[in-house]
Amino acid sequence: MIAFNRFKLANGLTVLHHFDSTTPMAVVNTLYDVGARDESEEKTGFAHLFEHLMFGGSVNIADFDAPLQRAGGESNAFTSNDITNYYDVLPVQNIETALWLESDRMLSLAFTPKSLEVQRNVVIEEFKQRYLNQPYGDVWLELRPLAYKKHPYKWATIGKNIQHIEEATMDDVKAFFKAHYHPANAILCIAGNISLEETKRLVEKWYGDIPASLKPQRMLPKEPAQEEYRELTIERKVPNDAFYYSFKMPERKSFEYYVADIISDALGREKSSRLYSKLKKELKLVTSINAYITGSLDEGLLIIDGKLSNGVTFEELDQALWPLLEDIKKELMSEAETSKLLNKIRTVKEFQEQGLLNRAMNLCLYELLGDANGVNEENNLYQSITAEQIKTVANRLFTKENTSLLRVKSIKE
Fold first, then answer.
1. What's the chain's average pLDDT?
2. Chain-centre distance for alpha carbon 147
3. S-S: 34 plus which of 69, 70, 180, 310, CB 3.0-4.6 Å?
4. Is the predicted pLDDT of residue 350 greater than 90, yes or no?
5. pTM as predicted
């Protein structure tokens, strides 16, 4: 159980406080309700660009990292299609350094031509190195538009193409910042050995004067139900043929989301999973195989991916894979397998809760979903899942009409 307090500033900033007397450290975690899904299709990659720009200094503080490091702290951030999350970890007695830095870049990020140029070049280089010039790097650039036709999940957080970042203007980034990086669109969590009263005092001191703005209304195009099997084969200079089966799954707030998560674990989470045991160990059709979910807030994907063994065709894999998916659709999962999966979920959740940073990030995410206390209820949701529910959801997931298959065929130099 993660205990927390919640309060809100007059400017709309939601604040969560989590007290932990056992650690000398503190976490300042800021979740902004903006991700790649909030971008214009003609100007993608902006949320990720801002992940970098926010470390380029603010009007009053030219260097974000140096003061934090002098205070014994460290920081980082990540962007997804749904959110952008920034965090600082530092000794609790120095927590004001993090609050000073975070509040100042929320108030007045420095938009200098030099900062934009530097961070734009960093992102362009990342695009090239991780997505264009790396084996299998462009898989998600190909798979997303295959699986999604309307919803902005059809592009990756790095962006739809590199040109959008290359052509980003100062006016573009200022407009994106003004719309999304303000108190009403943020959730701040202060965690550590610090009282609620002191937290309220410090948050009011550093964030209270930041002007209020209206939270942007999200009106995303809804992805229509997929009604046809989709497939795409691309040829790349990669070591092995690879496959990526994707199946549309329910949104994050749905109970079926948790059932789909359990199904992915049963299929391909570990070496004892169904796909690994049959396709790799017994039939030796693949050199690797995994199953997982994207964890998206809107309708996400359950993915089965892997690499073919030498001499094995995509057709041979397909013929062996679908009977395994039919098994989980037709037969109730045994009590032993269900219990094993749920026990692993419980263990993973308990392990995650041991870390102060994980607790702070999860509280923010669940607050975004509607109530931070959801983090304390999640395990009960998992433990309530039955074999009948697994069978029902598997039948909805694993149909040809709900499948998008990307094949990456290896070609030699």
1. 95
2. 18
3. 180
4. no
5. 0.95
